[in-house]
Amino acid sequence: MFGSFLSQIAFAQTSIDVLPEQPAKQTMQAVSPDIALAPLTPHTADYKVYYGSIELGDAKYRLPATDSGYYQYFFNSRVSLLMLSDERSLQSDFTIENGTLVPFRFVHQRSGTGSEYSEQTSFAKHQNLIHTIYKKEALKLDYQDLIYEPLMVQLQFRMDVIANKRPLEYKMVKEKEIDGYEFKIVGNETITVDGGTFETVKFEVVRNSKKRQTFFWMAPDLAYLPIRLSHYSKGSKQLDLQLAKYQYDKPLPVIPKLDLVFEQRIFEQHMAQKTLLDINSKEDETTDKETDEKVEINIANDELSAAEIERIKQLVKD
Question: Between the CA of residue 269 and those of 29, 185, 278, what are the distances in Å?
Answer without folding.
Answer: 18, 14, 14
